[in-house]
Amino acid sequence: MLVGVMKTKIVQALLLAAFCGSGFAQSPEQQFDFARKLEADGDAAFALLEYKRFIHYNPGHAKVAEARMNTANIYLFQAADTVGARKALGEVVKNHKGTPAAKAAAELVDFIEVNSDFGGKPLLTFLLARRDENGKKYADAVKKYLEVPKSHPKARLAPDAMIEAAGLLLNQLKQPQQAIDALAGMSPAHVKHERFDESQFLKAQAVEKLKGTGPDAIAAYGEVAKTNPESAWRVKALAEQARIKKSMNLPKREFDKKYVKAFKLANKATSRDVYVVSVEVDGGLSEREIKATLEDALFKHLGERQNDKHKVQIAAYFSYPITKAGAADWTPGQAVSYTVREMKAEDAVKGLLFDLLKKR
Are 64 and 58 in contact (CB under 8 A)? Predict the structure, then answer.
């Protein structure tokens, strides 16, 4: 139906052009830009006509190859007309040998030929879905993509369609469970498909979105990691696994950084399985300021542990090592425990005397 509408509009445009004259006093560049604007505005039929007129009147222009590629794209993604697309692509291959456009055109012709099984119906549905995706009509695109495996489960494009649908559901529509459901058709029969690893990585991402950074997500990424050792998706999955495992062991910040006050490193030491960092802070800090400063020191120094299983203790002093202000104790996988000691008058005196002794 869409093809018929386009043909009718083209005929109307041809009659209009014949009546008004063919040149319209446009330069080749203006004519090409006009065609491109029509395409961008969604007026595919008139854009197609203008591209053809541009090619006809300017056969030696530098943008002819691009114009032919654009007509092929309109045939494919707007009209779902594979015959017209292949003809336009063939013109690119024939007339622009050795150019990137000719290479891209040849690859697209191969794609059409390889995926024209079942009378080309899955391909046409896939292309219409891609058209909706390009137009940011993501829900419509998902519906069409999923129609491919539903109507033709053995079609060559069925796995690709499921993956495209899942990607839109996850990243554009923010529907992780639906993304997982979309990939349900990726069976062991598809293990050798070139995009199988990608589908499992998408599934793992959806699991993480749905259930958070925990054991389920680690296991899902682990399934991807079992694939071909040379797979780029396996490498990505291992990196995501490591990220989650690391995040599970790290504490979460509790205090706004605006409460963090300046501190000075006094000492660092590891005693058995505890990494102890001592810092000096100014007197007169509130309890919240001391805790926020302890937390900041913790995050700045916990990466220095000799072992990621080691505990960390941040000890804060008003005057190291005499008057203690508080401490933050952290065990991997657990929340941080804080103790704060209010500075008393005698502590201030001790600190002052100690500072005097240090300066002598």
Answer: yes
Helix orientation angle between 121-134 and 138-151, rounded to the nearest 10 degrees: 170
- Structure confidence at residue 263 (pLDDT): 95
Query: Which phi and psi (to 5°) does residue 226 adopt?
Result: -80, -5
Element (H, E) at 326: strand 323-330
Ranges of the chain with pLDDT below 70: 1-25, 343-360
Q: What are phi and psi of 230, to 5 degrees?
A: -90, 0
Q: What's the CA gap between 114 and 120, in Å, rounded? A: 10
Distance CA 325, CA 298 (A): 15
Residue 227 and residue 77: Cα distance in Å, rounded? 34
Q: Are strands 274-281 and 311-319 parallel, antiparallel or unpaired?
A: parallel
Structure tokens at 129: 């879905």
Residue with tokens 């913790």: 298
Bridge partners for 268 per DSSP: 277
**Rounded distance, CA 294 to CA 280, Å?**
10
Q: Residue 344's pLDDT is what?
A: 57
Which residues make Cβ contacts (< 8 Å) with residue 83, sequence separation at least 6? none
225 within 8 A of 213, measured Cβ to Cβ: no
Q: Which helix (H) or strand (E) holds 19?
A: helix 2-20
